[in-house]
Amino acid sequence: MFKNGRFAVFAAVTASALALALTGCGTGGISADEALSMARQKANIAADDILTYDITMIKNASENYFRVAFTAEDGYEYCYDISESDGSIINSSRDLADGESPAEAENPPAEETAAPEETSAPETDAPDTAAPETQAPATEAPAAAPDSGNTDSYIGEEAAKKAALDHAGVSESDVSMITAKLDRDDGIAVYDVDFYAAGYEYDYEINAVTGEIRSNEKEVDKNYTAPSDTPAAPKTEEYIGEAEAKKIALEHAGVKESDAQWMEVKLDRENRTVVYDVDFDAAGYEYDYEINATTGAVVKSQKEVDDDYRANASSNTNTAPAQTDYIGEAEAKRIAFEHAGINEDDAAWIEVKLDREDRTVVYEIDINAAGYEYDYEINAATGAVVKSQKEVDDDYIAGSQNTAQSDYIGEAEAKRIALEHAGIKESDARKLEAELDREHGRVVYDVSFDSGSYEYDYEIDAVTGTVIKADKERD
User: Fold this and answer.
1) Which CATH number fits domain 157-220: 3.40.50.300, 3.10.450.40, 3.40.630.30, 3.30.530.20?
2) Where exactly are the structural domains of the chain?
3) Using CB atoms within 10 A of its CB, is residue 261 exposed (0-12), middle (13-18) or buried (19+)?
4) What is the CATH class of 326-392?
5) Pairs from 235-243 (Cβ < 8 Å, separation ≥ 24)
């Protein structure tokens, strides 16, 4: 089915997708293999040209459907939602694959122009129920953005800033802060340009190729104080610059730039002060700095153990121990439950995270069970109980939160629900996180992510999947 050398990719398909492909789902409906064939034919992609694919069965109250996602040799990622019952196409999308530079990106062929290479579904026990073409209205793929890896055709950040300032009627000398970053919106490469001037916040999207203004917003800057009360905000040419901000943060941390595995610097605003956010990892630690953009003063500095760090073997006592030396979350939980004299099955809520206390790496374990809150710190290397605390749970209502964690929907499902509610694809979300928490006696997943110029914050009921809270605000 695939070209030579593709078997490893095929083998990487999830077990659930393979099971679906082999057995089909439900009775009287199409199989996962048929759904893949329909999606491929609709996209006019030959079987040999598929590089990777994933098939997920999504069940809801109104209709079950297959989500078929695949990457093809033309440099695009395709996604189709196909009804299990009749094979109709519910939704479809096509985006440039990360890092690809397809030959036809500027003028992609319409889906209707090429006949599909294969017209029959793969052999399967399920009846052939492929929907006729008339059941699914053709969805025209949006014009593809130029490859973000080749920006020769882009107008550049300075030209994007100028276009936004000219449209707003604002001189750059009157701007207190301006940023421009390359992004993608609806498959089109754009520059997000944000700036502050004379008590207003401006937000622009500029087409990265044509310079056309796709969207613009202007709103009152709630943090602005009139010049009669305070000195004028500094202009961007008065800022110390990213390189100097990095230098100040590294010197303060006592870290050489060559020893930093990862580093990010961005201009931001905190409490009416323009700062550089400087984040980097080095030798098993995460560093987070805020540097005053005008004076270079260190406004904030934070250092903590990097949970994902795998240190090389070293006798240096100042280096965080490698995680391979830790007892692991499961053992830390077992020690805490044994010390508390309770069964894990009786816990309504459990949270475990790796932390550092007084230069000792510990597992922090929080448990709610039978009307009490338990708080433990377990030495991550030795398993010793460093701290234990038990107190009455003020939010406890007898019988209301005795659900075992095995009944929770899970982080992946909580993320899916939040993204679906926000109308955001997971591929377009940044800093996507889900964490089990407790609010007013109810166990919830806190789900947060960024997309475009917005921050999203959700609370999802851990048992039912109900959206309890949804917040969206400008980043």
Assistant:
1) 3.10.450.40
2) 7-135, 157-220, 239-305, 326-392, 408-474
3) exposed
4) alpha beta
5) 235/173, 235/175, 235/176, 236/172, 236/175, 236/176, 236/177, 236/178, 238/294, 239/267, 239/274, 239/293, 239/294, 240/276, 240/291, 240/293, 240/294, 240/295, 240/296, 242/267, 242/276
Q: What is the CATH number of domain 239-305?
A: 3.10.450.40
pTM of the model: 0.27
| Phi/psi of residue 158, nearest 5 degrees | -65, -40
Q: What is the pLDDT along the chain (475 residues), one digit of tens a residue?
A: 333 333 333 333 333 443 444 444 444 688 888 888 898 888 888 888 888 888 887 776 667 888 888 888 888 888 888 888 888 888 888 887 764 444 444 344 444 334 444 444 444 444 444 444 434 434 433 333 344 344 667 888 889 999 999 988 888 888 877 888 888 777 788 889 988 887 888 989 998 888 988 888 888 776 666 554 444 555 556 788 889 999 999 999 899 888 886 688 888 877 667 889 998 888 888 888 999 988 998 888 888 877 666 544 343 444 444 456 789 999 999 999 999 899 888 887 788 888 877 667 889 998 888 778 899 999 988 999 988 888 877 666 554 444 556 678 989 999 999 999 999 998 888 888 998 887 766 788 999 998 888 889 999 988 899 988 888 887 6
